[in-house]
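Contributing new complexes? Match this layout with adenosine-5'-triphosphate.
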Amino acid sequence: MEASLKAAAIVPDKRLQKLVDTVQELSLARNLESVTRIVRTAARQLTGADGATFVLRDKDKCFYVDEDAISPLWKGSRFPIERCISGWAMLNKQHVIIPDIYVDDRIPTEAYRPTFVKSLVMVPIRTMAPIGAIGNYWAHEHEATEDEAQILQSLADITAVTLENVQIYEELEERVKLRTAELEVANKQLETFAYSVSHDLRSPLAGIQGLTQLLQEDYKDLFDETGNELTGLITKSVTNMTQLIDDLLVFFTTSQKELKAGDTSMKNMAIEYFNELKQLEPADRIFDFSIADLPNAPVDASLIKHVWLNLLSNAIKYSRKKDRTVINIGFESTPENITYFVADKGSGFDMQYYDKLFGAFQRLHSEADFEGNGIGLSLVERIISRYNGKIWAEGKPGEGATFYFSLPRKQPSPLEIAM
Ligand SMILES: Nc1ncnc2c1ncn2[C@@H]1O[C@H](COP(=O)(O)OP(=O)(O)OP(=O)(O)O)[C@@H](O)[C@H]1O
Ligand SMILES: [Mg+2]
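Output block (do not edit by hand):
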């Protein structure tokens, strides 16, 4: 219901409280609509009038934006600023009290005749350079007191400040939106560029790898021991760089890759990649591997495999200094999520540096202790967050680390993602 039929009059000592409440309400208003709603209601309650209007100046017109009254007034209408009483209050920068509108020649009586109005008080919003006005109307003859005009003027002054804040807020919001959109475009361009550079680096790298292999095979006898060691180091660095480039390519494509729904056996995948990674380790390394009966996940196998590969390769790598490599894979589930975890009893990490754990190119161990590029976990985090999941970890130096990732049981449909 737009207007209540009877606004309860507020006794003077309660007016201040009402004004304070209104200030609080206005401080939360973020758009013009809520400001007008709050003000028109408060304006009427503060004086117990039969009606209140909220008027804004629209160039040389007075725009009656909103109202709260016993019967309709002029909501939505525009009147020339020279020929309406709100215009008079704005042009003269002062309030006006009119006990009988039919004997005051500032009033365009033809506009008032269809209404209930007999008396009114009108105050300008922002007295220095008015941007609007607030009106109060009575159906019976009522000479508004200076007190009533004063309290309305206070409301109008607060309204002026609120309107300025709303404008600043809206401008800021607009600017943030614009900047975010610009940043997204710039980010995409940067990723496309980084992707093509990474991609193009692959072939010269493959060239170096091939040539080094030739040196190692065909010229082995011409090199002394140091020479052979050096070619071995070149191969190692090249392999490392190839791995980095491959990880980067996945990293850059993850945000653009279309998400496919799937029903991936996480258990099979974890076992498969563990065995693959184990093959790369010295034959005498002792593994103590256990895995629970992991539930399937509604995710794309070609993406989620990078999660297992990275978490398992970390668990294996950071356990290298221990006599046994103990890895335990398990899960916990709730109706909404499944949380998988990979726990190891390796070198662990210091929780003090947790903030760096998932950052690209951030490492918590030195290259001398454990080789690496620091890209693995940031890639894992990117993939998990694309599935609206979460990743976190716990670690203790010398004792091991556990990495958890949770995935929602229900993934949004491709249509929802596109939107
Ligand atoms: N299982 C783990 N145990 C102890 N520390 C870990 C473990 N996994 C990751 N970390 C720490 O987190 C850092 C970041 O891991 P991340 O996988 O991103 O990089 P990386 O292993 O150093 O290099 P990359 O994976 O790119 O080859 C590591 O450098 C290491 O310090
Ligand atoms: Mg890693």
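Reviewers usually confirm one structural detail per submission. For this one: Residues 310, 314-315, 318, 344, 346-349, 357, 363-365, 372-378, 395, 401 surround adenosine-5'-triphosphate (ligand 1) (CB under 6 Å).
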